[in-house]
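Q: what sequence does this backbone want?
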């Protein structure tokens, strides 16, 4: 019985560390893949020259890692309009730039901020003096 306790005591930290690493990577991959799906659909509408759509976005927490926020776009006169920012609780904010896609996004408050869960994002392709952009909103 003592030998069993020693084996557990030695191996448990390694197992927990491996699980934490797996959960961290899986949660970030899920989030980045969901953002990429949103961006791909948005680019299709932008390239088509306009339209409106509703996109369901599922932002899922990990077991140990939780999403603090995901921000889409920003004011059209700022560089944030061509980026998506996200942060997990306890981590630094990460930035995904959309300049290569020619994609700009804004919302009534400048940026659309979501947390974990399922949201229906409504977007409409609009244009200004600098070209087309997406106007985002949720119910």
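A:
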């Amino acid at each position: 019985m003592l030998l069993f306790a020693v084996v557990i005591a030695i191996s448990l930290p390694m197992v927990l560390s491996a699980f934490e690493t797996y959960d961290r990577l899986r949660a970030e991959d899920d989030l980045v893949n969901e953002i990429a799906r949103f961006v791909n659909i948005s680019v299709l509408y932008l390239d088509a020259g306009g339209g409106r759509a509703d996109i369901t976005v599922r932002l899922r927490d990990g077991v140990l890692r939780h999403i603090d926020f995901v921000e889409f776009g920003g004011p059209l006169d700022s560089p944030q309009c061509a980026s998506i920012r996200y942060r997990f609780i306890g981590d630094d904010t990460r930035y995904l730039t959309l300049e290569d896609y020619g994609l700009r996004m804004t919302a009534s408050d400048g940026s659309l901020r979501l947390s974990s869960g399922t949201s229906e994002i409504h977007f409409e392709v609009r244009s200004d003096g600098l070209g087309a952009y997406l106007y985002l909103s949720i119910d």
